[in-house]
Amino acid sequence: MMTEKRFVDCFWDREYCSTAGSDACFKKAKDGGQVSKQLLEYQKQRAHIEETYGKALLKLSKSILGQNEQGTLRESIDALNLMTENTGLSHLEVSAKYNEELSKLSTLTESHKQQRKKVRRCSQKTPDSEKKSIQKNYGC
């Protein structure tokens, strides 16, 4: 069974002109982009769930419960509704924070994507004369 080379080992190759190190870096960057996309999707789903749950709790807190009750039971029902409302508001706040962070993460992910493309283009633009010179001098 063939084992995959560890990232750190990609930079120690007998062949001078090996691209294993840069290939490993590009793969790591690409994989990082995939993880960023997955994280964005996770955050979107989590924000949606928090918002839905918060709205449901707020709706529940407005329901009529024990309308004709008095005394300590009335106080308990009012406290229950207030706690439910506060919990719903907390979940809506969490949803808003997730959406705020989602926007920042989205911007960061797009920035990294553009940087990866830029570095990839630069690495592929090595002039042919330079490549031939390296190959001639180092026997690649």
Largest sheet: none
Gyration radius from CA atoms, angstroms: 28 Å
Please give the number of β-strands: 0
Topology as H/E string? Answer: HHH
Class derived from helix and strand content: mainly alpha
Task: Assign an overall shape.
Answer: rod-shaped
Report on the structure:
The protein is built from three helices and no strands. The protein is an all-alpha fold. The model has no long low-confidence stretch (mean pLDDT 83).
Please give a quick description of this structure.
The chain is mainly α. Helix content is about 75%, strand content about 0%.
Features:
140 residues, 0% strand
Would you spell out the secondary-structure blueprint of this structure?
Layout: H1 20-61, H2 71-124, H3 128-138
Helix pairs in contact: 1-2
